[in-house]
Amino acid sequence: FRPHLAPYKVAVLPLSKNERLTPLARDVWSKIRPHFMSTYDETQAIGRRYRRQDEIGTPLCVTVDFESLDDKQVTIRERDSMGQIRVAIDELVPALREKLGA
After folding, report:
1. Which residue in 59, 70, 73, 85 has its CB near the most CB atoms, within 10 A?
2. Whole-angstrom Cα distance, residue 37 to residue 15?
3. pLDDT by residue for the chain (102 residues), tens digit each?
């Protein structure tokens, strides 16, 4: 359904439940939480988490992976096109606003 009707606009998903990824993923979530209705999920495999977010209509997922630890970038995945782009964490909020048309 349309993004403005989605219960969450953005989901933050670490690639895996890992002691190195979790702190960065939670930090990313804390940066976007004041701007968007968002959720954080680190349970199960990443594919299942993507599907779960797709099912409830979340238009964008932000994935924090092991590359994020080095390059300080995350991946934004669009629900409808399943397209993915890498964005600097510092540019994440403006990039999400642009994608959501907010």
Report:
1. 59
2. 21
3. 677 788 899 999 999 988 999 999 999 999 999 999 999 999 999 999 999 999 999 999 999 999 999 999 999 999 999 999 999 999 999 999 999 986
Domains detected in the chain: 3-96 (3.40.50.800)
DSSP 8-state symbol, 44? S
Whose structure tokens read 């630890």?
69
| Pair 70, 20: CB distance under 8 Å | no
Please tell me the distance from the alpha carbon of residue 3 to that of residue 25, in angstroms, as a whole number. 23
Half-sphere exposure of 70 (CA within 13 A, CB side): 2
Hey, what are 61's tokens?
């997922």
Q: Strand pairing of 60-64 and 73-78? A: antiparallel
